[in-house]
Design a protein that fits this description.
about 425 residues; alpha/beta; FAD/NAD(P)-binding domain; 7-stranded mixed β-sheet; 13 helices; 16 strands; HpyO/CreE_NAD-binding
């Protein structure tokens, strides 16, 4: 148990406390819990549930030494203070230091352990102001989420279950592929191969920031063997371009055709690039922002077509890495020790093939709730819908939500999702609790 604080008797309310489950204890789950403490102005009990990790564990070990995918300017957990992380860095780590001459920390990519410290600091501050809140942590793999009276029951693989007024799924990529397992598996395989006289190549499957970080970490630790990168696209993420804020776009059409939607976005981005001189990365980022607007008018069949055929490609071209990481990757491939190979399924490969994929799975989410993935979508408030009808008491935020709707695939968007979801949770939860 990471920590737990009981409701103090002197601060207890006669109104029954809501009980909320947050499935996932990574950045998305912590951002959700912070949003709950800042925006739900009545007593509640929140369970932070994770299959493997305690809150903040994403910053532990070698994964914590890897640089954040996004710069500091995009990593605030407070949407009303978008520069909060940058200001925290400036005040707590950079004041009077060797980097004081820099223009500012907004563009810095810092070790994930530093970002974890910031998130946990804001988590602790929010908790210190709420005497009427209880936070629990629970390590367990969720097997099923189903209706139970006026709320939901979360069933775990060990046979235990618990009931809640509301459930927020904020698992990131963890439902299908667990980050810690990728790091452990890669380190173990590298050590095993280093002891062999004529080793076969180590194969890393994926093409996202996680694979890039693991690859560079293996080299930094001294692994000199051959590494095959099995990436479906045959390339790794691109570096960040300049921000697309201020780029002007026309009103999106009320189209019900995915083809028309992409034609609009392509034309608008081409005009913006010619007018503003934007880099292609910047134009793709702007396109991601427009897709979420167009998405509202598309029928479910068109949404499913996007998820089946375009989501992976869109995600690959939208996700960014630090420029320094991109430069180091380029130098690594130039050595000839690392090369691209055709994509493969790591589940049918040998022990020297490591799954580093980061693609969230709508099918895995559908399995948790016993629904057809083709019928699911997420609205702007994070409500999970099946056949266009909201599933009462269930919200989806973060990376897992991006398996059901287009980007932008950024932490800033995840934070905005959590606050929209929390503002929607409060009146729903109050209505359910009042009927008990």
């Amino acid at each position: 148990m990471f920590f737990e604080r009981a409701v103090r008797e002197e601060g207890a309310s006669s109104v029954p406390a809501m009980r909320i489950a947050v499935i996932g204890a990574g950045p998305s789950g912590l951002a959700t819990t912070i949003a709950l403490m800042r925006r739900v102005h009545r007593p509640f009990e929140a369970w932070l549930i994770d299959a493997e990790d305690a809150p903040g564990a994403f910053g532990d070990g070698p994964a914590g030494k890897a640089l954040t995918t996004e710069p500091a300017r995009d990593l605030s957990v407070l949407p009303d203070r978008p520069d909060d992380f940058a200001e925290w860095l400036k005040g707590s780590l950079l004041a009077g230091g060797a980097v004081a001459a820099l223009r500012g920390p907004q563009d810095l990519h810092v070790p994930r352990a530093v970002f974890r410290d910031y998130v946990m600091a804001r988590f602790g501050e929010a908790l210190s102001l709420r005497r009427d809140v209880r936070i629990r942590t629970f390590r367990g793999a969720v097997r099923h989420i189903g209706v139970a009276g006026t709320g939901l029951r979360v069933a775990f693989r060990d046979g235990e279950s618990a009931e809640f007024d509301h459930v927020v799924v904020a698992t990131g990529f963890g439902i299908a592929e667990r980050e810690a397992a990728s790091w452990r598996g890669a380190a173990a395989a590298a050590e095993r191969l280093s002891q062999q006289a004529d080793p076969s190549p180590l194969t890393l499957v994926g093409n996202g920031p996680r694979l890039a970080a693991i690859l560079l970490d293996l080299r930094a630790r001294g692994f000199a063997g051959e590494i095959n990168v099995a990436a479906a696209s045959g390339r790794l993420p691109q570096p960040h371009g300049r921000g697309h804020e201020g780029m002007a776009f026309g009103e999106p059409p009320a189209t019900r055709s995915l083809k028309d939607a992409f034609r609009y976005i392509r034309n608008e981005c081409s005009a913006a690039e010619a007018r503003d001189g934007g880099q292609w990365q910047t134009v793709v980022d702007a396109a991601s922002a427009r897709l979420s607007v167009v998405w509202r008018n598309l029928p479910q069949a068109e949404r499913n077509h996007y998820r089946r055929h375009l989501l992976r490609l869109h995600r690959h071209f939208s996700v960014r890495i630090a420029r320094d990481v991109h430069r180091r990757l380029g130098a690594e491939f130039e050595t000839g020790r690392t090369r691209f190979v055709p994509s493969c399924d790591p589940r049918s490969a040998d022990e020297n093939t490591i799954d580093c994929r980061e693609m969230p799975s709508a099918r895995a989410l559908a399995g948790l709730i016993g629904r057809d993935a083709a019928a699911l979508t997420v609205d702007d408030c994070g409500r999970l819908l099946s056949h266009s009808e909201a599933l009462c008491g269930l919200s989806v935020v973060g990376a897992i939500a991006s398996s059901l709707r287009p980007g932008p695939f950024t932490f800033a968007e995840t934070v905005r999702q959590t606050y929209r979801a929390v503002l929607d949770i409060a009146p729903q939860g109050l209505a359910r609790v009042s009927h008990r």
